[in-house]
UniProtKB/TrEMBL annotation, chains A, B, C, D:
<dbReference type="InterPro" id="IPR051823">
    <property type="entry name" value="ASADH-related"/>
</dbReference>
<dbReference type="GO" id="GO:0009088">
    <property type="term" value="P:threonine biosynthetic process"/>
</dbReference>
<dbReference type="GO" id="GO:0004073">
    <property type="term" value="F:aspartate-semialdehyde dehydrogenase activity"/>
</dbReference>
<dbReference type="InterPro" id="IPR012280">
    <property type="entry name" value="Semialdhyde_DH_dimer_dom"/>
</dbReference>
<dbReference type="InterPro" id="IPR005676">
    <property type="entry name" value="Asp_semi-ald_DH_pep-lack"/>
</dbReference>
<dbReference type="GO" id="GO:0009086">
    <property type="term" value="P:methionine biosynthetic process"/>
</dbReference>
<dbReference type="GO" id="GO:0050661">
    <property type="term" value="F:NADP binding"/>
</dbReference>
<keyword id="KW-0521">NADP</keyword>
<feature type="active site" description="Proton acceptor">
    <location>
        <position position="243"/>
    </location>
</feature>
<dbReference type="InterPro" id="IPR000534">
    <property type="entry name" value="Semialdehyde_DH_NAD-bd"/>
</dbReference>
<dbReference type="Pfam" id="PF01118">
    <property type="entry name" value="Semialdhyde_dh"/>
</dbReference>
<dbReference type="InterPro" id="IPR036291">
    <property type="entry name" value="NAD(P)-bd_dom_sf"/>
</dbReference>
<dbReference type="GO" id="GO:0046983">
    <property type="term" value="F:protein dimerization activity"/>
</dbReference>
<protein>
    <submittedName>
        <fullName>Aspartate-semialdehyde dehydrogenase</fullName>
        <ecNumber>1.2.1.11</ecNumber>
    </submittedName>
</protein>
<comment type="similarity">
    <text>Belongs to the aspartate-semialdehyde dehydrogenase family.</text>
</comment>
<dbReference type="GO" id="GO:0051287">
    <property type="term" value="F:NAD binding"/>
</dbReference>
<dbReference type="Pfam" id="PF02774">
    <property type="entry name" value="Semialdhyde_dhC"/>
</dbReference>
Length: 345, 345, 345, 345
């Protein structure tokens, strides 16, 4: 029995990746797509400036795109994936939840709301039950689950492994982020050729707060943020896909390079279709992971780490994940699988 | 009265910048150039694959290039600029010093030797007098002065300003370095298009040790390294020139964004021809400095800073300098001017 | 006595170059700037996302930007430079001409109109007198003069030299055009990193028609198009500035590589401030001219040529010019100087 | 029954693609690899700086690499793929042929030799029987078959389709070639970032002669070159893979856009494992094919065409192929399959 799914914001950079992931998905069946008012009524082929380097899946190209309102989505859709600009998301996602839809959202609005679970299934799947608090409080038949920002997702699995074994106290992270993270029109060529931009609006704050929520503890009623101190510095560079990050992790317990690598290499995926067998790939070559060579580890759902060095207070390392797969579309799909597994649909 | 100068390694990326700087220099006159054995005897035009976006200076193109030995440099040369691979530098620089030449070197060999001054004139000009210790100890008529690594130079002026006002305790720095820092053939196009490389061999160690020597104190006999803890993470990206760095500076004294900016903005250049009027340009726009737009601040001899944020233990900011000008050729020329001013020629 | 000038579309990529050229200009004084409705009333610093790698000229940053209507431009402005989207240009340029302003326009609208001179001063300065026909016919006090498209300008000076000596019959040209030619937001980073786009809307047609008008003959009443057959193929690549073009020029008379090079090397600039001493620089190195190394020849107002080979029917070669200088802003300024010299202001 | 194959030059850019293609190949089994003297004796993992964005195939990483001489290749190897620098190829390929090996070579040496077949199986498979003339003449037990240069392969299938239907008279072609075509170290980052190079040594001559041999006729004794006039202009741009070409094809018979597209769309692959079902994919979008989006058409073995326009004497269009797959490694493998099918092993 397939789950009938809809995609809000289906024509954008993440939306196209969602379409690519849902088409062959063993549990999901694409039943509705929406985009901005100006695209409504067009076929997907007309509405989307398709930029993935594989063709539009058969059957999808001629599907009609609706407007982004509950009225344009059939009632028998069980699960909604949302990848909207945050302003639009803040406005329409509650409408969908009120109308009874369960929404797995990649949009940044509401991620830090107290009754909205922010989940990376391999890290904090238990937080999903915050949805019960949410339904009680908001009186929704539907539900709203969020995945974190792409740059946050990249570092959280390795940080979770370190935290479990050595207790994190301070994290410093510097990012080298790909242009696809800003959407198709987000970075112009004149801005980035022979250049780098040491600022991505709001990104540092997202990394600093979302990581503490993901590593926080849920007691059945609320999520207590992790007490670690996180400071981020975010940069845009001329790569297409794959966020690379330099991390300094200070720990309570003493940590060696070998112990840190072991803690990460041990992390397995979980029992969901999109979760990879090995979540974190540890590279021994000092110059890896690299965006172009390693962003497709585990079909873009793995996280690569390398370049470990001991520091006075902990360990430093590099991590990399595919920002529109593990960091966005794949993250939402994985959360959708979790919602299905846990009976929230 | 011009100082007659020679350039060792004149055909490389930094060598070409040296030629470009010396040609119009008010104090220096180019009298000799050397390169590898295979280039010796050729004209500079033949030997150098000239890649600067301005023509080879008149008069230089037809000068003959010698081999890199004291025998191939006229006796009346007063000052040698050296930009050799470190292995070659380690071998031949002492020969030149022994033969009586004063060498201002950009090569990385010997920078941390106890009797070799490592100098950025605006930061620690007083260290130059370590040369007297050096001459006493080694029995040289000549002398060997070093400038630091390009990635170190970029962050040291702003760090010196902070240290003077607030006392540094810990520094974390992540770099986004331009390909020219590796020389003309150092990074292939297949390595860097749509990619970044999170490793530059030995660079992190250089930043961690050289910065402590530059900010160390010289008591007339030896340099005591600064006690701060420095940890670096170095990345190569697809920019031509200009190293961009994200810095977290923890301080003993409390520091605000405004106080940090003020401390940096106050730093003036010093009384040497290549020292800019204002050493550090503070950008108010949060997305500056950027490599392509800001690497030529003060003709490539300034340092740009921006993106200040307060952290729990200090301040974070970004800095940028032109790696082959302020970070290499210009640094050596500035040190040559200092040697001249202080009577070491 | 300075000529007071205004700039329509002052905040765009070409507009910023116009500001950069007018500021130090010996004959012109900036008296007015306009932009879109949403920018009107702002200072230039606020309105323009300045992207030139030199600061906004002093005095200009705090000037107020007006809306693009004759009402927002003072009456005592003698000359208008226009760099508007063609749709806007088609609408407002006639308003300015009717109101008595003389307009030197880079906008593509109306270039092939029979009574509009299309001029590159070093090639067909005599066509400027078509303005008398224009004024008679349209009853304007003002006047409208156009420079051609950036990709056309790049090839026309060398083609004119060949045509003068050997009579052109057929031209095939393939272009590798820089992203700045599309304006600041014209090409997204996701479109061009690790990519090339073999299509620029309308560009091929512009090159094919405009080149024949520029090399056409003016008899005092009308311009007869040159009879040569021109076919263009236009590509966008990941360069910031500088259009590179591969040209096959078939000629009536026999032509050798040496004769072709000589014909081009002989072309001098003309007696206008922005015209370079030597218009065409002939490179002997087979791999030159290159965009990054050679786009600034003669301060961006020269044209580089190289790579000559004899073909069965003529000669093939490469040419390069800075597309926003010689190819746009500089072209308009040069035409403004011509209008001033010839007494049209 | 697998064919045991060896690869000469296995560590280079094309060599790595050969390994990638042979590993899962239904007919071939990798039995030997050679590289330069300095790599001999190392494992493949040690010897190759692997740069393909998929891991080294299992089993290959630990195989030992030999020197490039017949002595280092087992006797029971049936087929040799060669991708050597042309100087090396000219020296050692005859040694292998003399020793009885059949060599499918991508190296440029000897391609125009009268008794060496130059073959793209879908275009001129019949030329393979020139090998009988070769064996007679040279007294070899082995044999030497060549595939053309990557830039030639890209345009020849569409040209063959046009020639079959409309008879080609003149061809002008301008290329935008990827950096991988020059090998891993062939183009430095400093040469190509924000730049293009309008010259690739010898490339124009290869395209001009090889295309006439491929479209020439073989009468059982010799190949008569096609009489068309071909002139090429070759450029290197900042793409990783995929050569894009602008072609003007003048024809004897009249040709329309539709007829040209139909002639190309009709071309099917042939009965060999690596030949795609449809050889030429015709794009209707005017801005396609593009390197990044379309180089993987038919797993990199297809050719994309688009942008058709009628010209005075024929038609112009763009074509694209993956230069290290269809243009090099895949071309050699395909020729190996042909040799196997025709009984030459």
């Amino acid at each position: 029995m397939s789950v009938r799914v809809g995609v809000l914001g289906a024509t954008g950079a993440v939306g196209q990746r969602l379409i690519q992931l849902i088409d062959p998905h063993p549990e999901f069946e694409l039943a509705a797509m929406t985009a901005s008012e100006s695209s409504a009524g067009k076929t997907y082929r007309e509405a989307a400036k398709w930029r993935v380097d594989a063709p539009i899946p058969d059957g999808v190209a001629e599907m009609e795109v609706g407007a982004t309102t509950p009225d344009d989505v059939p009632d028998d859709v069980d699960l909604i994936f949302s990848s909207l600009p945050s302003g639009v998301g803040a406005e329409v996602e509650p409408d969908f939840c009120r109308a009874g839809y369960v929404v797995s959202s990649n949009s940044s609005n509401g991620r830090m709301d107290e009754d909205v679970p922010l989940v990376v299934p391999e890290v904090n799947a238990d937080h999903v039950d915050l949805l019960e608090v949410q339904r009680d409080g908001r009186g929704w038949d539907g539900a709203l689950l969020k995945n974190p920002n792409c740059s946050t997702i990249t570092m959280v699995p390795p940080l979770a492994a370190l935290d479990g074994a050595f207790d994190l106290t301070d994290v410093r992270v510097s990012t080298l982020q790909a242009v696809s993270g800003a959407g198709y029109d987000g970075v112009t060529s004149m801005e980035i050729i022979d250049n780098a931009i040491p600022h991505i609006g709001g990104e540092e704050q997202k990394m600093e707060s979302e990581s503490r929520k993901l590593l926080g503890s849920f007691d059945g009623a609320e999520v207590e943020l992790h007490g670690m101190d996180v400071a981020a510095s975010c940069n845009r560079i001329a790569t297409l896909d794959g966020h690379l990050e330099n991390v300094w992790a200070d720990t309570e317990e003493e940590v060696t390079v070998e112990a840190a690598e072991d803690a990460m290499a041990e992390v397995t995926g979980i029992d969901l279709p999109s979760s990879p067998e090995q979540l974190i790939k540890v590279f021994e070559e000092p110059d890896r992971p690299q965006p172009r060579l390693d962003r497709n580890v585990e079909d873009g759902m793995g996280v690569g780490v390398g370049g470990f060095r001991e520091t006075t207070d902990g360990v430093q390392f590099n991590c990399l994940a595919h920002n529109t797969m593990r960091g966005a579309a794949g993250a939402s799909v994985l959360n959708g699988e979790l919602l299905n597994q846990r009976g929230y649909l």
